[in-house]
Amino acid sequence: QLVESGGGLVQPGGSLRLSCEVSGFPLDYFVVAWFRQAPGKGREGVSCTDLSGHNRWTADSVKGRFTASRDLAKTTVYLQMNSLKPEDTGHYYCAVRPEICAEVAVAYDDWGQGTQVTVSS
To answer: In a 3-state reduction of DSSP, which class is residue 77?
Structure first.
């Protein structure tokens, strides 16, 4: 089970930290990725954390502003989002797959319900 939280309404330039609580998918075998979907658009990859807990890739559109991390107990993955822009608005999801990060949504079979992020003044 994957449960996202931490979304909300924030002004441009603000910050949010999303959480993805993972159960049933050992994080020493499953990698965790973040995706987002804006209204009328496809699901876009944001970041992926590998088995070592390191960022394996980050989308160019968020590089330098978003950082994914994992807690020491290895049950929750975070997405720290700084300097938010209106174009970051969307529904944010976490997803898992075995062993290797992939940048496309179709590579992931298991998803959370997502959390809404709205960046607006």
So the answer is: strand
Long-range contacts from 52-61, C-beta under 8 angstroms, 24+ separation: 53/27, 56/31, 56/101, 57/101, 57/103, 61/87
Q: Smallest Cα–Cα separation from 77: which of 15, 20, 18, 2?
A: 20
Amino acid letter for position 84: L
CA distance 95 to 90: 16
* pLDDT tens readout for residues 27-53: 889 999 999 999 899 999 999 998 888
CA 36/CA 94 separation, integer angstroms: 9
Report the C-alpha gap between 21 and 60 in whole angstroms: 25
The pLDDT, as a whole number, for residue 52 is 84
